[in-house]
Structures are given as structure tokens and as C-alpha cells.
From TrEMBL:
GO CC, alphabetical: cell outer membrane
Main localization, broad class: membrane
Residues annotated as signal peptide: 1-24
OmpA-like domain ranges (all copies): 521-639
Alphabetically ordered keywords of this record: Cell outer membrane, Membrane, Signal
Claim: Membrane is one of the keywords in the record: yes
One Pfam family per UniProt: PD40
InterPro entries: 6-blade_b-propeller_TolB-like (IPR011042), Bact_OuterMem_StrucFunc (IPR050330), OMP_bac (IPR006664), OmpA-like (IPR006665), OmpA-like_sf (IPR036737), TPR-like_helical_dom_sf (IPR011990), TPR_rpt (IPR019734), WD40 (IPR011659)
UniProt subcellular location: Cell outer membrane
Protein name according to UniProt: OmpA family protein
């Protein structure tokens, strides 16, 4: 069930005195397309100059997702003298929806010879390129078999299947006692569920969800439930409370005391946009959805949001131009193997919405068309995989039971092998006896190499965390807890992926293990910087020492509330006064290097101790002298107010949809920060 939002932005050029035509215009402007069509048809019988009415009928069919019916009206509008750029582009889309690919290319090629509108010209060039790929798509071999799920489909629309805990949820307009949605002439859609063992349906158990979910005067649909069954997100809209097509938003409800709570509007909605088709990632910590919000690539784009350790949803980001196009992308679905299925009429396809799959490897995203029979020249959308090789999807292809039907499918590829990669870790610290122990309650965030936040976990009493990772990719992890040093660690799957040809099971899980040590911040406790070496009788920073000092730079950037003293120590050989001066110069040289890397000078001071703080008195061996020669740092100040403001700043950025990885220095923290509530990988 697709809604089109672009290309009818021009002012109606032809004004007719006929009251029927004016009434039709008002219905069209209100989005009541089905009623508008009837009135435009009446106006046609009274008016010889019918180009505008014909075009408006075609647009009404297009905007109510009946693009194939619009074809003769676009053609007639052109024959009647309608020459605005959008009529040629939309005519080509309707021809494509009816598999008339050659005619669609001809219309676009002729239009491009005399195009006036730069935006539509760009879309036409984009669509013409897609049409030139049709033959390649038709020739692709696939291993899918599909079957209409006759037990559940009716003459009404059934779509957006979602399987969870032995029940199949779906959206339908079957309730004939409900109100009529004036845009399409169908009943308002509601969410239903039925007991199911895969494709085996217990038809006697079909029931509509309660009125707390389904309103009588709204369309509900596209349900998503997290893997624990505790959180549901669904779309609701067209209540008439807001004018136009953007009155669709995401709602969230929690399962408590054996029932769903009162749904609430999610804060990730853009109130000026259409927000719909939600889907959880396998771990439930990412929500994918579609939206027409500003800043996208055109039409409907796919976005993601993540949940933080406080259970708040934010960090909204566009999935990028590898997935999104100038046209529409919607109905995302994350499979068990980390792939993202979605539907699009912007990528090269067979007709209206086609089903594609996005896969990330080596930091790059590749898009694949699922081919026939998964796709047709009609709308094919809303894939849901209930096992690695089986699932459901929706289509309005010929031969079904109704407007949209639910289908089952199976991937019978004999070489199908699925490998899931995970990074499992634990957060630790040192206790008073200097023993390494579990550290619970640490907030762990994983980022891609290009600093995109991919996930966030608050560790429990066992200190454990787990993230899905992709093949051949670099990551870094940041772990933090109040009164502990924020710590980062890198991780890579490069060169660590499995050879699928050597695997015998359908599914293989590969788990990488790691550990993140967070040290407690104790004022004046010394931490030694290893491998800080200087040339004999020199205070110049060597290249190998710079690498070690860079680690301290990272610590300071990751921990804005702290100020430190960096100290240099010598052994006891030589004159005490000389050693004191040498250590002072070395400490000052190290501090100067750290400041040159962007650290505020007020946060670090140099101190030379010479031989006054020997670890080993009366050292004799070279090894003992080396122990005494060391560079250390200690925290001299920990500003909890700065820490609080940083947390508020991060929360504000999270709610806005942006997360800065490298936290700003103390002097740059704003005095006032919001405390309001809240990859594809």
C-alpha cells in the first residue's frame, strides 16, 4: 500500500466555472481521491475542454495507489493538449506498471527532447536508465517459489505480514462494518492476527486487535514487535485531524499485565512528514522505518533509529543513497542474517514497488533485486522472513484474492548458507586488590569506522554486551560509566570471515570475543604510560613515543571532565639536579605534543620529578633502572558538573538524530543543554 507524495506540486492551471469541477478540486486537495474521481468524471461530460480533468483523474488514481488504471487518462490528457512536464513522467510510470516497457521508454525519450522542468527531467533520466535494465532483471535466475496464502486473503486488501511467537499479524481492510477511507474508497485498515505455524494458518483464530490499537476512524497497519514481545510499533493515520497525506505517524505500545498499553506517538516522528512501515532489527535495538521528512533523497526514504540505555529512541539517520533513491523506498525488514529487505520503485525493477535486499560487507552496501517470481510489474512489498529460507510478502499481482494479498515464499537455492557474525564482550575493572573483576552498569556503544552509531547497550550484572557485526569491516567501541575513565577499543572482522563453501549447516554463528577495561577515576592515582622513550640526554618526542602519547590524547578527548598532571621520572644515576631538569623538560615536551593535538592547555600540566620518586630504591640492574624511568599521569580534578552537562548534551544530540563521537572539550560545552526525552549494519 504505497502513497506517492511528489510531482503534483504545480498550481492547477485550468479553472472551470462548473461547480462540479470545483467540488472535484476540493475533494482532490483534501486527499479524497475516490470521491474526486467521480466528480471529475461528471465534469468531463459537461466540458469539451477536458485536459485538466483527465490529468486530475489520472493523478487521483496514482495518488491512491492505482497507477495502472491511470494510464488511459494520462494518454487522453496528452491528446487533449495537457503539456505540463509531470504528465509525461507519470504516464511513463503507468505504462511501466502495465509492463509496457518499450512504450514507457519512448514516452521518456520524447519528453527529454523538450523537457522544461529540471527536477522532473532528472527523474525522467533516472527512470529511463532503470527501464534500460529491465532485460537483465528478467533474465536473472532465482530459486524462489511463491504461493498465495489463500487461507487468509479476501476480496479486500491484506498486506504487511509479520510473524511473532506463533502468530501472524497482518493489515486488512476486510471490516465491512467500518468507515470508508475517502482516498481509496476502501474500508479503513486495521491490524489482525491469526495463529500460525509458518504457512499453516488456523483460520478460526483470526481476530482484530483491540480498540486500543485499532481506531474506527483511522488506518492502522505495518506492525512490528521486538523479539522479546514486549514492544510493538505500528503506523496510524488519516484520522482527518490533519489535512493532507502527511497524517501518518508511528505509535509505540508496551506489553504489560497481559495486554498492550495505550499507544503513544513516538518522538522520532517528523510532524510535517509521513512516517510509517516500521521494522525492528534482530536484536530489537534498531528501528527501521520510512518517512518523507526533509533532507532525504526524494519521495519516501528509509531511516533508522536506535534505542539508548535509558530506553529512549533517537539517533534518527537516513540510510543513504545506496538504499534511497529519488523515488520511494519503504517496508524495510531485517532478516536473521543481518540483511535488510525493502521495497522500492526507484531501483531498477519490473513495475511499481519491487522487493530488494541490501547487504553490508567491507563497509559497502550492495543492493540486489529478488527477481521473478518474488517481483512482478505490480506492487510487491513487505517481506518478512520467519526462517532463513522462508517467509511472507505482499503483492497486488493478478490472480490474487483481492486488492493486496499475502503470499508465502521459499528460497530453494541448494547452495544457500547463512553466516551470522557477532561481537560478544564484557566490561571489567580493577578492584582495591588490583584484581580484574566484572564491571556492571557500563554503557557500551559501537560505531562504524566512519563514526556512525550502530548500537548501544547498558551492561547488566554480568557485564556482558553483544553486537552484530558485518564481514570485512572495522569498528570501534566506547564504554563509559560515571566515575570511570571512558574507554575505547577497536575491532575488525577484516580477514576473519568464514568460507561458506566449507560449511555444512544452513546457519553458522561466528562469535568474536573481547573485553573492555574501565579504570576507576581516583584523584592522584598514578597510571604509567608504557613505551615512552627518549634519546639519550634528549627531551625530543620520538615517533614511537608519539604513538603512546596519542593514547593519552584519546583519553582526554573521551573524558572531558578530567584534568591531569603528566609527570616524568628518571633513574638515580647521574646528578640529582640534572635529572630533575631533564625530567622537567621531558614532561614539558610531552605536554606540548598533547596540546598540539587539540587538548585545552588548562586541562594538563607538566611536572618533572627527577629521581625523587623511585619505585625501586637502590636499583642495580638495567631492568630495575628502567622501571624507575617512566612517564605517568594522574587525575588532579574530576568535574562532575561538566560530566552532567556532557550527558545532557549527548542526550540532546541523540534526540535530534545526531551523535558526536568525539565529545567537545569542556570550554565548548554549552551552558544550557536540553533535558527533554528522546546501521543498516
Amino acid at each position: 500500500m504505497k502513497i506517492k507524495y511528489i510531482l503534483f506540486a504545480s498550481t492547477l492551471l485550468f479553472l472551470v466555472s462548473c461547480s462540479t469541477f470545483k467540488r472535484a478540486e476540493k475533494k482532490f486537495e483534501k486527499g479524497e481521491f475516490d470521491s474526486a474521481i467521480d466528480l471529475y468524471e461528471q465534469a468531463l461530460k459537461k466540458d469539451d475542454n477536458s485536459a485538466q480533468a483527465l490529468f486530475s483523474i489520472a493523478e487521483s488514481y496514482r495518488l491512491s495507489n492505482r497507477l495502472e488504471i491511470a494510464e488511459p487518462y494520462y494518454s487522453a490528457a496528452i491528446d487533449s493538449g495537457y503539456t505540463e512536464d509531470e504528465v509525461f513522467y507519470n504516464y511513463s510510470l503507468s505504462l511501466k506498471a502495465n509492463s509496457n516497457y518499450d512504450k514507457a521508454k519512448e514516452v521518456l525519450e520524447n519528453y527529454l527532447l523538450q523537457a522544461n522542468n529540471p527536477e522532473i527531467k532528472k527523474l525522467a533520466e533516472f527512470q529511463l536508465n532503470n527501464l534500460n535494465n529491465i532485460d537483465d532483471i528478467l533474465e536473472d535466475q532465482t530459486f524462489y517459489t511463491v504461493k498465495n496464502l489463500e487461507a487468509i486473503n479476501t476480496p479486500a486488501a491484506e498486506y504487511a505480514p509479520f510473524f511473532h511467537d506463533g502468530e501472524l499479524y497482518f493489515t486488512s481492510t476486510r471490516d465491512e462494518e467500518g468507515r470508508i477511507y475517502k482516498a481509496t474508497g476502501d474500508n479503513f485498515s486495521d491490524i489482525y492476527k491469526v495463529k500460525s505455524k509458518g504457512a499453516n494458518i488456523d483460520t478460526a483464530s483470526i481476530e482484530k486487535l483491540s480498540s486500543i490499537i485499532n481506531w474506527s476512524d483511522a488506518n492502522e497497519g505495518s506492525v512490528a514487535i521486538d523479539n522479546r514481545g514486549r514492544t510493538m510499533v505500528f503506523a496510524r493515520g488519516n484520522t482527518g485531524k490533519r489535512k493532507g497525506l502527511n497524517d501518518v505517524n508511528l505509535y509505540i505500545t508496551r506489553y504489560r499485565n497481559s495486554k498492550w498499553s495505550e499507544p503513544e506517538l513516538m518522538k522520532i516522528n517528523d510532524p510535517e512528514a509521513w512516517n510509517s512501515t516500521p521494522a525492528f532489527s534482530e536484536d530489537g535495538r534498531t528501528l527501521y522505518f520510512s518517512s518523507t521528512r526533509e533532507g532525504g533523497f526524494g519521495g519516501v526514504d528509509l531511516y533508522s533509529a536506535t534505542v539508548n540505555s535509558r530506553g529512549q529512541w533517537g539517533n534518527v539517520r537516513n540510510l543513504g543513497d545506496k538504499i534511497n533513491t529519488p523515488e520511494d523506498e519503504m517496508f524495510p525488514s531485517a532478516s536473521q542474517d543481518g540483511k535488510l529487505y525493502f521495497s522500492s520503485n526507484g531501483h531498477p525493477g519490473l513495475g511499481k514497488l519491487d522487493i530488494f535486499v541490501a547487504e553490508r560487507k567491507g563497509g559497502e552496501i550492495t543492493i540486489s533485486h529478488l527477481g521473478k517470481p518474488m517481483n512482478s510489474n505490480k506492487d510487491d512489498f513487505a517481506v518478512f522472513m520467519y526462517s532463513p529460507d522462508r517467509g511472507f510478502f505482499s503483492s497486488d499481482r493478478p490472480g490474487g484474492e483481492g486488492r493486496d494479498d499475502i503470499y508465502t515464499f521459499k528460497n530453494e537455492n541448494p547452495n544457500l548458507k547463512i553466516v551470522n557474525y557477532f561481537l560478544a564482550g564484557v566490561t571489567t575493572t580493577h578492584n582495591k586488590n588490583d584484581e580484574e573483576v566484572i564491571l556492571p552498569g557500563a554503557n557500551v556503544r559501537m560505531f562504524s569506522q566512519d563514526s556512525v552509531l550502530l548500537g548501544e547497550i547498558l551492561t547488566g550484572q554480568d557485564g556482558k554486551f553483544n553486537f552484530r557485526v558485518s564481514e570485512e569491516e572495522d569498528y570501534f567501541i566506547i564504554a563509559e560509566k560515571d566515575n570511570y575513565f571512558t574507554t575505547r577499543k577497536t575491532f575488525s572482522t577484516v580477514g576473519k570471515t568464514l568460507d561458506k563453501s566449507q560449511l555444512t549447516s544452513l546457519i553458522t554463528n561466528k562469535v568474536f570475543e573481547t573485553e573492555i577495561l574501565l579504570e576507576e577515576i581516583i584523584l592522584d592515582k598514578a597510571f604509567e604510560l608504557e613505551n615512552i622513550y627518549y634519546d639519550f640526554d634528549s627531551a625530543n618526542i620520538r615517533a614511537d613515543a608519539a604513538l603512546e602519547l596519542d593514547k593519552l590524547v584519546t583519553i582526554l578527548k573521551d573524558n572531558p571532565p578530567i584534568k591531569i598532571e603528566l609527570s616524568s621520572h628518571t633513574d638515580a644515576r647521574g646528578e640529582a639536579a640534572y635529572n630533575q631538569e631533564l625530567s622537567k623538560r621531558r614532561a614539558e615536551s610531552a605536554v606540548a605534543y598533547i596540546i598540539s593535538q587539540g587538548i585545552d592547555p588548562s586541562r594538563i600540566k607538566a611536572k618533572g620529578y627527577g629521581e625523587s620518586q623511585l619505585i625501586i630504591e637502590d636499583a642495580e640492574t638495567e631492568e630495575e633502572h628502567e622501571t624507575n624511568r617512566r612517564t605517568e599521569f594522574k587525575v588532579t580534578e574530576y568535574d562532575k558538573e561538566v560530566a552532567r552537562r556532557i550527558r545532557e548534551q549527548e542526550e540532546a544530540q541523540f534526540k535530534k538524530g545526531t551523535v558526536e563521537v568525539e565529545i567537545k572539550e569542556e570550554k565548548e560545552v554549552p551552558e544550557e543543554a536540553s533535558t527533554d526525552e528522546f546501521d543498516f549494519n
